[in-house]
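Please check these two lines:
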Amino acid sequence: MRRTTAIRAAASAALAAGLAAPLLRRRLHLRPPVVTAVAATAPFALVILVPRSRRRDVGVCLLQMWAYLATYSMPNDDPEALRARVRVEYPVRADRFLGRGTTPTLRLQRAFGTPGRFAAWEKLLVWSHWLWFAFPHGSGLYVLLRHRENFPRAATQIYATFDVGVIGYWAIPTAPPWFAAQQGLMADGRTPELRRMMVEYGEQFWKSGWAPLYRFLGGNPLAAMPSLHFATSVTAAHVLSDSSPVAGALGWAYAATLGLALVYLGEHYVVDLAAGLALAEGVRAATPPLAPAASRLSRLVQRLEARARA
């Protein structure tokens, strides 16, 4: 009985600390590794405390994203320090090489865009970018509701893509094309210059609501390499394909549309997408060889879960 109480008390404390650490990190001057480590224990604590159900599965994913969002945002806690560290030039050079002297973003915008106007298909591209915030998680939810037997593998792949990718935002903070344009690094003596079309259309569509919406969603604006927008969408397309051919086809159609949107709208470089694709495929390839270690961890957590209810 004492052991059961102790396990539940420890798990409850870990859950509370995991929820609180990202919120209190500035007030308590917590170091980023401490915040990430504490927040990352919360999903395991929930598993120990709550019996398995679809609701618990959703809760575990939400807690995992809570830890991810804190880790993603923390480089921007000091915007000036982030700007001092951010890499701006190397992706410009890489994309200029791929575009034979002009980045693919500029080539596409100049060939198909009209400054100050938005064609219906350009609005579709903007919306595909905004809908990304729901797509990876919606894909996981679809698998959970329709093919629950596939959910552990699907969720592991989707959220591992987030977690591995965020390392790049700390190791190689890289600015997106629109930021490079603001620094004058996209200028080539021709017009029109690069537009940040998502912001242009956002201000037009959302009007006064755009600024608070952008502040809420844009926790770290200088996090472009790798493109987790693209990486997580590719991973989601894979897990949808594992569950249903129709869902998979829709997933791949979305991923392709988003990839075009990210480059065309000035949000990512082609090399960002290439890195994101490599990340997604790497997570996919690593799943089988890492499965035994994941199973051992799962059994350990299950034993703690059983003891917490003994």
